[in-house]
Amino acid sequence: xxxxxxxxxxxxxxxxxxxxxxxxxxxxxxxxxxxxxxxxxxxxxxxxxxxxxxxxxxxxxxxxxxxxxxxxxxxxxxxxxxxxxxxxxxxxxxxxxxxxxxxxxxxxxxxxxxxxxxxxxxxxxxxxxxxxxxxxxxxxxxxxxxxxxxxxxxxxxxxxxxxxxxxxxxxxxxxxxxxxxxxxxxxxxxxxxxxxxxxxxxxxxxxxxxxxxxxxxxxxxxxxxxxxxxxxxxxxxxxxxxxxxxxxxxxxxxxxxxxxxxx
Length: 263
Ligand SMILES: CC(=O)N[C@H]1[C@@H](OP(=O)(O)OP(=O)(O)OC[C@H]2O[C@@H](n3ccc(=O)[nH]c3=O)[C@H](O)[C@@H]2O)O[C@H](CO)[C@@H](O)[C@@H]1O
What we know:
Shape: globular
Oligomer: single chain
Number of strands: 9
EC number: 5.1.3.7
Structural class: alpha/beta
Domain NAD-dependent epimerase/dehydratase: 1-175
Organism: Ignelater luminosus
Largest sheet: 3 strands, parallel
Number of helices: 8
CATH architecture: 3-Layer(aba) Sandwich
Helix content: 40-55%
Distance between the termini: 38 Å
Pfam families: Epimerase
Bound molecules: uridine-diphosphate-N-acetylglucosamine
Strand content: 5-15%
């Protein structure tokens, strides 16, 4: 994590300001984007919301999410008007199925799926896999990848819940419940896109967790929500976005302007 202060400033100061403004205006309903990183290195799998949070968090981003959850616990304890849902995202991947909305690949990234796609499209020569000696199905790290469209419906379900029921503060896991290794993800991506992803396995990345996947039953029971999209759809949709926009949003804008019908 190169810029800890930037994360603290953006996430913590931003949240403080938001909560203050909300309180000043009598607005007490909030859906907070939390993260599975609040669990740290899990001591049981799949992870339920009962799992302790805040222990062994390996990066600053995760710490800010944890600190914010603590802040939310304090304000909802102090003032019963608050009605907050914290959604703990597992690993969001994919893109909008139209291919028009996605993660801008020109920005710096460290996440796996954009990296795989950059190798597939030829912008990077080889995927480096961080660690092949984990205690997992094939030695590579295991994660619960979830399609961004499922995350979106999770938010709608959370908003509906806030309208229907006053719970003060409640956290829900948003994941598929399925653990997928890096190599399994690479194979799925190659299969659905018909590309080849050369890779080399290097040493473990500092701070990485061996395996993490959700028990998302609580979201199912309480919010009536369940992830619908398969791993193959996550790959197909991300690949569509990547191939339609190889240079991200910048190229789209430039192309529109040179065609003379940009809005
Ligand atoms: C340490 C870190 O940055 N953690 C963030 C990362 O988690 P997380 O590390 O789970 O997500 P990544 O997409 O970076 O990595 C997923 C898996 O792929 C492996 N991998 C990744 C990139 C690569 O080039 N090669 C490779 O082998 C990793 O070792 C891991 O096993 O993204 C999550 C959101 O999606 C954030 O909530 C986490 O805070």
